[in-house]
Amino acid sequence: MSEVLAPAPASVPHTTVPAARKVAKIALIGNPNSGKSSLFNHLTGLNQKVGNFPGVTVDKKTGISQLTPNLKAQVIDLPGTYSLYPKSLDEKVIIDLLHDKKSASYPDVLIITADASNLKRNLLLFTQLADLKIPAVLALNMMDVAEKHGVKIDVAELQQELGVPVIPVNARTGSGLAALKILLSQELEAPKTTFFTIPENLLVMVRQIRYYFELSNDYLAWHYAHQYHKLSFLSDDDKEYIGELVKKYGFHSNALQASETVDRYTRINGLLLDAMRVTKAENNEQFSNKLDQVLTHKIFGYLIFFGVLFMIFQAIFAWAAYPMDLIDTGVATLNAWIHTQAEGPLVDLLTDGVLAGLGGVLIFIPQIALLFAFIAVLEETGYMARVTFLMDKIMRKFGLNGKSVVPLISGVACAVPAIMATRTIDNWKDRMITIFVTPLMSCSARLPIYTVMIALVVPEKYFLGFMSLQGLVLMGLYLIGFLAAIFSAALLKWVLKTKERSYFIMEFPTYKMPRWKNVGLTIVEKVKAFVFQAGKVILAISVVLWVLSSYGPGNAIEQAEKRAAAELTSLNLKDADAEAHVAGQKLEASYAGQFGKFMEPAIRPLGYDWKVGIALLTSFAAREVFVGTISTIYSVGDSENISTVKEKLMAEKDEFGQPFFTPARAFSLLIFYVFAMQCMSTLAVVYRETKGWKWPVMQLIYMTGLAYASAFVVFRLFS
Amino acid sequence: MQREQKSVRDLKIGEKGVICCLTDPEMSLKLLEMGCIPGEEVKLNSRAPLGDPITIIVNDYTLSLRLDEAATIKLKA
């Protein structure tokens, strides 16, 4: 499993931080909401890199920290956890790292963060880590909050009791950080105090495991006995070895874990008697409680939540439109300028292939940045926990999570940032279901298709003087998309098997002011992750699509161009119309055109011909491209103008001389686009979020299948 | 006996109780880690508008959980 070429000998003492020659590896670990991420941001600033842990969807955040002017260290941010016994797939990453000394990221030192206002629970994880005997520092955060709650902590006494250096820090302001860095730049010893004694009757078994795997202490061997089936670096033989021992000695993992936790809490309660003094009892979180009376109120709670959703929606739908237009015109202007400087196939590849694809990546940045600005604030303030609290009962029925609401609503603007937003859902299964169904929500790229097709076949009638029939149909399409999402989720809930049990049990954080630095860094991190990981897939596909639609077999394109030019005079076309006619003929001769004709038999049952086929292929880049392609293929000069496009399409005749775009065909197309996964950017982002091709491919098959079947039924019903 | 024993689910808002035992072996591990230790005091803090989930105060902090999860935390009579 481990990729290390020359594994370090097991006897190497890990109690010293290697000096300047080798960069020390520091791992940050702590409870969720203990200020771990803020501390990571303070330590590393913008020197952060997001990578992958093998096999899970959680991001591996690493960064370089300048400890002293001439000493750097690598810091790795581990997922927040309450204990060393993982309850979720994400948390499993931690034991894979800490229990495998040969792991490339095995830390030299741990920074354990703890929330001082919640010390008892935070110390549970600390005592487990201390028993692993990895050199560690306790960063005691939120002392000010603790004091406000009337909790006074004697740091010197605590340090004495815990047996590791304790540094009070304030992850908001960064105070205490200098002391922490200085400490980390020195040699640290392994924790001396042991907090848990392994039951004597099991010591023989534990020692056997310890010596077999050459482990440095009993508690690590104890963990091997508990979690051998979860440790991905152990071979099947190793697992079998432990499995047999466990059976032989009657090792009941659940019961032993429970009694270990109770023992640890007893020990913690004992040591806190001396180190912690509570002066005021029970007044905690008055402010949060008052705020909750409004924010989780039966009526106001939901009103405010829908207000927040509406704001988010406005932001990514309307506000983001300005910078997006700017990027759009910027790329177009640059392309036009390049064309005035040089011509040729390579220039075309650069402009229409690469730069256009790059524009297709950059165009998402405003939406991603805005959505994550909101989400980061919701997370930072603690409001996201209330969202889950408000929505859990409803969403659970459909196999979704309370937090799924935000991605689903964002999906109406664009599935790409929406799918990135599912990262806030902790439960693996809930997250996968949300990712899977979000693209079924009608996004803004479908709107141009909806508008054109509705204008084509739905009459401009009004009911009761104000209800437009066209508007009703449009609303119906959004509704169908929403229902499809909800029911697909309910379906997946039954299909998807998972070993991971879903709990709701979670800390209900108090309200806090957002830390703007964290909000800013979240935005930067998300944009970077999208551009560098999903972006390359988008770029690659858009270049392929460009090649398909600009090149044809042999000299087919040139011939088409000549033919079209010759026809111009006889057809009496001028300027834009003439250009459009040539472009249309060229597209027909291209590989995309060939492909359209090739796939015509497959799409004929839906009522489409090869021209629609071309548009289906090219609009895989992005759905709105459909309108552009249809305009090109039907030689519409001014594709920006809906009524011109409409006129052209209405004039289009089928082989019997009847109008081609009958209501049956138009509705069939509409339904197709409601369901179809016609968006390479969404696929790319699902690939990036699920770290593999399995989910995007399943999604593509499911959505296209659904689209095909529904379009077929609709076409039959209407014709 | 199990059925009649009061659980956190049965508390009224503001009402307190002392944890006696946890009935779901697997879920109890999570609850123990979160500080729901037998002998600790719990207080029902609030209910979501639809009745489920709830928040409780235990171990000096606020924990939210679903009703069926709360039902596994039995209280001392």
Written account of the structure:
The complex is a heterodimer of chains A (719) and B (77). Chain A is an alpha/beta fold. Chain A is 60% helix and 8% strand. Chain A folds into 4 domains: 24-185, P-loop containing nucleotide triphosphate hydrolases (Rossmann fold), CATH 3.40.50.300; 200-278, no CATH class; 300-445 and 490-520, no CATH class; 521-718, no CATH class. Chain A has 32 helices and 12 strands. In chain A, 45% of the residues are buried. The model of chain A is unreliable at 1-20 (pLDDT under 50). Chain B has one domain (8-75): Roll (SH3 type barrels). Chain B is 17% helix and 35% strand. Chain B has a 5-stranded antiparallel sheet with strand order 4-3-2-1-5. The longest helix of chain B is centred in the middle third of the chain and has 9 residues, at 25-33. Chain B starts with 15 loop residues before the first strand and ends with a strand. The interface between A and B is large, with 43 and 31 residues. β12 of chain A pairs antiparallel with β4 (61-65) of chain B.
Q: Key terms for this structure?
A:
heterodimer; A: alpha/beta; Rossmann fold; 4 domains; seven-stranded mixed β-sheet; two-stranded antiparallel ribbon; elongated; disordered N terminus; B: 77 residues; SH3 type barrels; 5 strands
Biggest β-sheet of chain A: count, sense, barrel? 7 strands, mixed
- Share of helical residues of chain A: 55-70%
CA(first)-CA(last) distance of chain A: 59 Å
The helix/strand class of chain A is alpha/beta
What is the ordering of alpha helices and beta strands of chain B?
A: EHEEEHE
> How much β-strand is present in the residues of chain A?
5-15%
CATH topology heading of chain B: SH3 type barrels
Figure out the total of helices of chain B.
2
Average pLDDT value of chain B?
Answer: 90
How is the largest sheet of chain A built, in terms of strand order?
2-3-4-1-5-6-8
Q: Uncertain segments of chain B of ≥5 residues (pLDDT<50)?
A: none
In which order are the strands of the major sheet of chain B placed?
A: 4-3-2-1-5
